[in-house]
Design the sequence.
């Protein structure tokens, strides 16, 4: 198992322990479209008990470059197309110790006024993501 897949599995398990429904395969958004029409595939889709999407998770390596900004824009377009009434969080989780979180934050800040269907907290380490997840409840979201 690659480092990336191991981190995806750990984060998914943490959400599951909190009582969320977690999807790590076939994350084609918007749903119901053929693979050729899929716009965005997050690493993890998290839903509450009412099956509302509450969180999308992207597990990243050390660079927070244009791929992060592109993922945020595509995720926002998908939420608009899916007509999601809530504002799911889009978490960018970096698992390498030398990850450049400041660069990622700068890239996301540059497009924040264009993101209207998502809440994007600052990029975080895996440890910070676990802390964030521990404060969430599938009943209150």
Sequence:
């Amino acid at each position: 198992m690659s480092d990336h897949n191991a981190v995806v599995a750990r984060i998914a398990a943490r959400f599951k322990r909190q009582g969320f429904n977690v999807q790590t395969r076939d994350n084609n958004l918007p749903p119901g479209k053929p693979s050729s029409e899929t716009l965005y595939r997050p690493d993890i889709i998290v839903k509450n008990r009412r099956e509302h999407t509450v969180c999308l998770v992207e597990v990243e390596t050390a660079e927070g470059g244009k791929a992060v900004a592109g993922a945020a824009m595509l995720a926002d377009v998908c939420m608009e197309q899916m007509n999601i009434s809530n504002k799911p969080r889009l978490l960018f989780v970096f698992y390498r110790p030398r990850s450049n979180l400041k660069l990622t934050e700068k890239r996301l800040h540059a497009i924040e006024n264009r993101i209207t269907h998502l809440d994007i907290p600052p990029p975080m380490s895996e440890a910070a993501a676990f802390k964030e997840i521990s404060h969430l409840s599938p009943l209150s979201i």
User: Anything to note?
Assistant: Residues 57 and 127 are 14 Å apart (CA to CA). Residues 66-81 form the longest helix (16 residues). The chain has one domain: 3-134. The first strand starts at residue 21 and ends at 23.
